[in-house]
Structure formats: structure tokens, C-alpha cells
């Protein structure tokens, strides 16, 4: 009997309840999966990111086979350096299925490659809606047409109403939609105290095999695998969710923006990677968080803050991505042109906050949202790094990075490259923000209150320089007008000293073309 349907299953589509399986017949149909070097090298990917995808894929394929599903699985060592499209094209010609299906990919580059491969084999690729999400790109597009501006808050409230999340009748639980004002606390001088360690997972034989493969095939890639303990199966992801709900969700809300030296996890969930590989359903995650509130196990401010990230930002950035692709990646509203400093690949910098955030990123493939937005992202924004360079660094180094979620968060939220499509203002601040939210500055050679001179915090000098360089644009934005008015307090001598300090810092980190080998590899 010939092959009726070939279902393509990508590395971030590891959910057996996907719509592509609705009419799946084990007697007539098969699943196709492939590990290809291209997916590890189109950006200079962190070893942990490569390992997580491969380990999760192999576990998923084994689960399918144990259930009686035929899986055509191409391993890295079976087909050499060919691309995803080349491997698929060859298998389509060999297998000759009557129909080829795929859940909508999370990366437009991959979608176009699959379409070309199918077309080259004389077949049509059927793209099926990804019902893992609460909403679809098509529905988001309809929602967007009715609005002059697109704001996450409006979208988030609409989804909460539609899906009856944290609602008491027709009103939001607790009588308010947004509890952000209660969720911006720092730890103070005492620090976070004794923190519950997040649930980690032992490496089974499959995962150990993958880790060895990654070390052998990609020895010069950034990061290390010493601490690799990410969930790689649905069961492990569910255990990680339960651990977060029981031990860290209650304090997540007030301290979600806080930072602390040598504390990479704090009260954060570590669930984004499992969600983005679809080992975990966002509906399950949201339901678990709301149940904790309804049962009195977590306060509303923590539950609402967490659900806002899953139901709000996660869905919103996906809508923005598909609404504006493929051109979204080329946005550069602020005209930033500098290369990425080389220390982003090593963590070797005197700036404690960047040393901490980049160091833990290289160690674990992880940093929480404030470390990404208000440390590494803020620095590249103020320095004037070309946004696409920043985007591809984030895509390379974080285990949870899939382009649909990473690109809008980086280009829109962090770098304001899309000129306000996603965020209403540039998230620009001086070193005093980092001082307020962390203890990083206590261990740093630079002073956050100083904006010029040898001991001036680079963030502070670059912040004032940023305001000066973009003064007219920022004055027109109601949310940054107050910041720009502060420029009136500066004398001509102050402005000159700020520009001199900022230029000296740029020359120091960029003047010798310190971009690392891997960064050049990512941008040939």
C-alpha cells in the first residue's frame, strides 16, 4: 500500500494532539522528522539550544513509534550538511506520498523552505492551523484591521473575555485587568533569601547521546552543556509546571522584574522552552495558574502577571510576527548601524550587569525577561547596534528562541526597530534602573549616577546620549516626552561631556572590531 499522508513534524511541533494528526491513519500515513545542520548554524546556536531541540525531537519520535506510528527520522549523521529543504525534497521523491501536511511553522524562513521543497518534488504542501495557541494569525489580522493602534493590553483583555480566563462574570477577577503596578518590586538590600531550586531533570540515555553529539559536531559553538537539565518530554514539562505553581508562582508577581547576582532563576518558571517546543500546552499552563489563585495557593497579582505573559504577550507577538512578515526582520526605525560587541559571545566585560546576564546565558541558555529587555537589550539599544544583529544573537543563545516569539520581542519591544508597531515607546533608561532593581551596581567599577567621566556608568552615559541623538523623535512621543524635557537641564558643556563619554565607550567596545568569530559566522 502506498503512502497516503506524510506529516512533517518540526522540532518545535512536539505535540501529538496537533491538528495534522486529526485524520491520521497508522496503516496509511507516516510522520517525517529531520535533524539538519542548517538549523544549528543559520545562527551560531548555543550548544544547549541545539541539544534541547534534538533531545526533545528524539524522545517524541520514540513515543510515536512506540504507539505504532511510522516515523521517517533523519539524523544529523545520516545525510551530511544538507539543508532542511534538501532533505525533505529527497524524501518526498523517494516516499511519493499522496499528500504532505505540516502545522504552520513558527519561522517564515522554514515555511518557505518547506514549500519550495514540496514544489520541487511536484507536490503541494498543506499548511494546517496551529491550535496549540489560543488565537490564530488570521483572527489577529481581523482584530488588527479594526484598530488604529495595536496594543497588547487591548488584545489581552479581549482574549481573557473570550476564553473566560481570570473572569468573575463579565468583570476581571479582583475588579482590575492589570496589576503591573504591584509587580515591580526589588529585593532590597537583604536580597531574595532562600530560593526554592527549580525542578531539573536527569539525563537519560537519549539525552546523553545528544549531548555527546553536540559536543562532537559543534565544539566551537557558544555556551556549555554542564548544567543541562531542561525538560525534554511532555511528562517532564508537566512536572516543571507543577513545581513552578507550587514553589515559585506565589512570589513571582512582585519580584518578576528583580535581578540578583549569581541568581539566574529567581521566581521565574523556566517554562518558555517547553511551551515553544509544544511539550506543554498554554491552556494547561493558564488553567494551572488560575486554579492556584482560585484555590488560595497564589495571590492574584502573581497569577495575573504570569498569565499576562502567556495569554497576553505570547499570543500578541505571534500575531505581530505573521502580520508583518517577511519584512519585519529588516526594520530599523532608529537607524542603528553598529556591530554587536564581541563580549556578547564571551561575557568578558567590566560591566557587572552585562557580565552577569551574558554569563548565565552562556552557562544555561537562559535569562529572564528583564535581563533580556533591560540589561542586554537596553545596552544594545543605547549603543546603537544594528537591530538584526541583536535579533540573531537572541535567536542563537536562548533555548526558548523560536523566531515568531523572539523577533518581535527583540526588534519591537527591545530595540524599537519597528517604530512602535509592538511597543508604544523605546524602553530606554539609565543605569539607575538597574541599580534600583538589582545589586549588580554594588559590585561594579562604574557609578550609575554619573553620566560623564571615567567612572560614568556606560548605561547612563549612553542613555543621555540616546536622548540627545533622538531628541526630536522622542519629544513627539507622549510616553517619552518627559524624559526628553530633562535634557533642558543640561548645559552645552554637559552635552559635550556626555557625547565624549559615550563616544569613548563605543570606541572601546567597537573600535577594534571585537565581533567574535561566531557573530561573523551568524552574519556571513
Topology:
Elements: E1 5-8, E2 30-34, H1 38-41, H2 47-66, E3 71-74, H3 76-79, H4 84-95, E4 99-103, H5 108-120, E5 125-128, H6 137-145, H7 152-163, E6 167-168, E7 171-172, H8 205-217, H9 234-247, H10 249-255, H11 272-276, H12 282-294, H13 300-324, H14 352-364, H15 369-383, H16 387-397, H17 403-414, H18 431-437, H19 458-469, H20 471-475, H21 481-485, H22 492-510, H23 517-522
Parallel strand pairs: 1-2, 1-4, 2-3, 4-5
Antiparallel strand pairs: 6-7
Helix pairs in contact: 2-8, 4-5, 6-13, 7-13, 9-12, 10-13, 12-13, 13-17, 14-15, 15-19, 16-17, 19-22
Could you explain how this protein is built, in words?
The chain has about 525 residues and is mainly alpha-helical. It folds into three domains: about 120 residues, Rossmann fold, CATH 3.40.50.620; about 140 residues, Serine Threonine Protein Phosphatase 5, Tetratricopeptide repeat, CATH 1.25.40; about 180 residues, DNA Cyclobutane Dipyrimidine Photolyase, subunit A, domain 3 (Orthogonal Bundle). Helix content is about 50%, strand content about 5%. The protein contains 23 helices and seven strands. The strands form two sheets. The chain has a five-stranded parallel beta sheet with strand order 3-2-1-4-5, with helices on both faces. It has a two-stranded antiparallel ribbon with strand order 6-7. A hairpin with a 2-residue loop joins strand 6 and strand 7. Helix 14 crosses helix 15. About 50% of the residues are buried. The C terminus is likely disordered.
Amino acid at each position: 500500500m502506498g503512502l497516503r499522508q506524510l506529516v512533517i513534524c518540526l522540532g518545535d511541533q512536539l505535540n501529538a494532539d496537533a491538528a495534522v494528526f486529526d485524520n491520521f491513519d497508522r496503516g496509511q500515513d507516516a510522520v517525517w522528522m529531520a535533524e539538519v545542520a542548517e538549523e544549528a548554524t543559520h545562527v551560531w546556536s548555543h550548544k544547549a539550544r541545539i541539544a534541547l531541540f534534538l533531545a526533545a525531537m528524539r524522545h517524541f519520535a520514540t513515543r510515536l513509534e512506540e504507539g505504532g506510528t511510522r516515523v521517517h527520522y533523519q539524523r544529523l549523521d545520516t545525510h551530511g550538511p544538507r539543508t532542511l529543504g534538501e532533505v525533505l525534497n529527497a524524501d518526498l521523491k523517494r516516499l511519493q506520498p499522496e499528500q504532505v501536511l505540516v502545522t504552520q511553522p513558527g519561522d517564515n524562513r522554514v515555511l518557505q523552505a518547506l514549500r519550495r521543497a514540496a514544489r520541487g518534488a511536484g507536490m503541494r504542501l498543506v499548511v494546517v492551523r496551529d491550535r496549540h495557541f489560543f488565537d490564530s494569525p488570521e483572527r489577529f489580522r481581523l482584530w488588527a484591521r479594526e484598530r488604529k493602534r495595536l496594543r497588547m493590553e487591548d488584545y489581552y483583555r479581549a482574549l481573557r473575555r473570550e476564553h473566560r480566563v481570570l473572569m468573575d462574570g463579565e468583570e476581571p477577577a479582583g475588579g482590575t485587568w492589570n496589576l503591573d503596578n504591584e509587580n515591580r518590586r526589588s529585593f532590597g538590600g537583604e536580597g531574595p533569601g532562600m530560593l526554592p531550586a527549580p525542578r531539573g531533570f536527569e539525563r537519560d540515555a537519549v539525552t546523553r547521546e545528544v549531548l555527546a553529539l553536540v559536543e562532537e559536531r559543534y565544539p566551537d559553538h557558544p555556551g556549555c552543556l554542564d548544567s543541562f537539565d531542561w525538560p525534554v518530554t511532555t511528562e517532564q514539562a508537566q512536572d516543571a509546571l507543577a513545581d513552578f505553581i507550587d514553589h515559585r508562582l506565589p512570589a513571582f508577581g512582585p519580584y518578576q522584574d528583580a535581578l540578583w547576582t549569581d541568581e539566574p532563576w529567581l521566581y521565574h518558571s523556566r517554562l518558555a522552552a517547553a511551551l515553544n517546543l509544544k511539550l506543554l500546552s498554554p491552556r494547561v499552563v493558564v488553567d494551572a495558574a488560575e486554579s492556584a489563585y482560585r484555590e488560595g495557593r497564589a495571590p492574584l497579582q502573581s497569577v495575573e502577571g504570569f498569565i499576562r505573559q502567556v495569554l497576553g504577550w505570547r499570543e500578541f507577538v505571534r500575531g505581530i510576527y505573521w502580520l508583518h512578515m517577511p519584512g519585519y526582520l529588516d526594520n530599523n526605525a532608529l537607524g542603528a548601524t553598529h556591530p554587536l560587541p564581541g563580549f556578547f559571545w564571551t561575557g568578558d566585560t567590566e560591566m557587572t550587569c552585562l557580565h552577569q546576564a551574558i554569563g548565565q546565558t552562556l552557562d544555561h541558555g537562559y535569562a529572564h525577561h528583564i535581563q533580556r529587555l533591560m540589561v542586554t537589550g537596553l545596552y544594545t539599544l543605547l549603543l546603537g547596534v544594528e537591530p538584526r544583529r541583536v535579533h540573531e544573537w537572541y535567536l542563537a543563545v536562548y533555548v526558548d528562541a523560536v523566531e515568531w516569539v523572539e523577533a518581535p520581542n527583540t526588534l519591537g519591544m527591545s530595540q524599537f526597530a519597528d517604530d512602535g508597531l509592538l511597543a508604544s515607546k523605546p524602553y530606554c533608561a539609565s543605569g539607575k534602573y538597574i541599580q534600583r532593581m538589582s545589586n549588580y551596581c554594588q559590585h561594579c567599577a562604574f557609578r550609575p549616577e554619573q553620566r560623564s567621566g571615567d567612572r560614568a556608568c556606560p548605561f547612563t552615559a549612553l542613555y543621555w546620549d540616546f536622548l540627545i541623538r533622538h531628541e526630536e523623535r522622542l519629544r513627539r512621543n507622549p510616553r517619552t516626552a518627559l524624559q526628553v524635557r530633562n535634557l533642558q537641564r543640561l548645559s552645552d558643556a554637559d552635552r559635550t561631556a556626555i557625547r565624549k563619554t559615550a563616544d569613548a565607550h563605543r570606541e572601546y567596545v567597537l573600535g577594534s572590531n571585537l565581533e567574535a568569530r561566531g557573530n561573523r559566522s551568524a552574519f556571513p
